Amino acid sequence: MMAGAAARRVAGSRRAPPSPLQRAAVTGLVFGILGLYLAIVGILAMIHGRAIIVGVLTLGQATLVAIGLGTGAMIVRGDGEHGAWSWSTLLRSLFAGAIAGGVLALLVVAMDALDLRAIFIALSPALFEMLTFDLGLAGGVLVLIGGSAALAALGALLTLGPRAFRRHVLIGCIAVIFFGVFQELIQIMMQYGDIIGAVRETIYTWEGLTPEGAILIFVIATAISLLAARLRGGERSDAETPPAQRRNARIAKAAVAVLLLVLFPLLAGSYIGQVMMLVGLYILMGMGLNLEVGLAGLLDLGFVAFFAVGAYTTALLTADSPHALAAFTAIPSLSYWEAMPIAVLVSVIVGVLFGIPVLGVRGDYLAVATMGLGEIVRVIVQSDAAAPLLAGAQGILQIPKPWLGNIELSDPVDLFYLTLACAAVAAYCAWRLENSRLGRAWMAVRDDEDVAQALGINLVKVKLLAYGLGAAFAGLAGSIFAVMLTSIYPSSFQLLVSINVLALIIVGGMAACPA
């Protein structure tokens, strides 16, 4: 008897698994609390000012819609493999959605009855109007609860529907949100040409997408998704696709990506061209710093000094300025194509000289030492002693644009293609260096200097080559940077540039040169 009583107590102490209705209630509470948090911290009010479809939908309202849909989708996901269409699933989705909306409805009631702004400043009248949809307290509460329940049911139905259909609809919705959120940037890109301008006026006003434009974008994005699925051979998985077809698909995707990269600035205009050009310059510097940090293990926080050397060398050799070399010597100003290799060579020399004082320094001490050397270069440029040549804080002006035959590369799009070509050549060189004997020596030094030296690697030679070749990439980027601005100043070469380039290769992957 005692054993039976103990067994009953143990069985009674075990909690029964939650019922489907309890899971639905918890899911609704979780999504409702998520919406409550976004409202209290001010995110909903902030993004409500961004219109996606003018007069129809804002980003804040889209967030509320996503919360409702997500509630229903999570109800179906919670059922696991047993998730299938049933009236029970639909009713539980409605129940969970009503709870999620009810949490926000309680916030609305509290905002109407109490002055909560003394505690939560984000609970403003504008947020109250957003949550009630300008219908007043009673109407807003009904819409929040009823609308959230209906959206949860829709989310459950979409989740239970065919996977392909769900994906295509999701892509269309994402496209509408993207074109609505980034409408200023996209409209700037669509100001060139009569045809593109007419398309812009059809789908946009200056506040956001028109309803007609949103429908058009949704239809086009969904059609492209359907066409891409058809070209992939339907819904076959990678395991079902022949290896040759997968390889051809990867090659085709790479070719399309390169084609888009080349043609996009032409279609987008000068602003996007200049942005992409700056990205290309950072890619150039990133590949150079990757030789030092990623392959050789030499942490360099003074890398911006080589960038400055390339820019100032190009400016001194080409500028029509009192501070150019032509003003001090009988040598006439050089063209950009003559000055660029000299700027790269001078950067290499400075990189080698830069590396000599820190040959015996390792680890964090190396980072501090290189940062100090980089600051020394900036101080010299701003000093009164170098002012007659380098112009000090006034900078060097009147740097001419490069000419390619009879064509002046004055537009940012033209300079982007120059940067792209230089980056492609630099990427090839970096890839060859990584797989060369020198690259293997760098990696040996990175892993263990003492063992590398014991194996016969000349540490002085290998380290100086890393500094010199890395500086060549930065000098090339600085040379292009000078002709892009047509003027350079010491303030353009701050320590933050080195930190940004270092962050770039950390995020992108050190010692991962493009092949």
**Helix-strand sequence:** HHHEEHHHHHHHHHHHHHHEEHHHHH
Q: How many separate structural domains?
A: 2
**Main beta sheet:** 2 strands, antiparallel
Counted beta strands: 4
* Backbone CA Rg: 31 Å
Overall, the morphology is elongated
Can you tell me the residue ranges where pLDDT is under 50 for at least 5 consecutive residues? Answer: none
Strand content is under 5%
Helix-and-strand structural type: mainly alpha
Helix proportion of residues, in percent? over 70%
What's the number of helices? Answer: 22
Amino-to-carboxy terminus distance:
76 Å
Integer average pLDDT:
84
| Cross-sheet strand order for the largest sheet | 1-2
What's a quick, concise take on this entry?
With 515 residues, this protein is an all-alpha fold. 71% of the residues lie in helices and 2% in strands.
What does this structure look like?
- With 515 residues, this protein is mainly alpha-helical.
- The chain has two domains: 2-161, no CATH class; 268-508, no CATH class.
- Helix content is 71%, strand content 2%.
- The chain has helices at 2-13, 20-40, 43-48, 59-78, 87-113, 125-132, 136-160, 163-181, 183-189, 194-203, 211-231, 243-268, 270-295, 304-318, 336-355, 363-382, 387-390, 412-434, 437-447, 449-454, 459-485, 495-508, and strands at residues 51-53, 57-58, 403-404, 407-408.
- It has a two-stranded antiparallel sheet with strand order 1-2. It has a two-stranded antiparallel sheet with strand order 3-4.
- Strand 3 (403-404) and strand 4 form a beta hairpin.
- Helix 15 (336-355) packs antiparallel against helix 21 (459-485).
- The N and C termini lie far apart (76 Å).
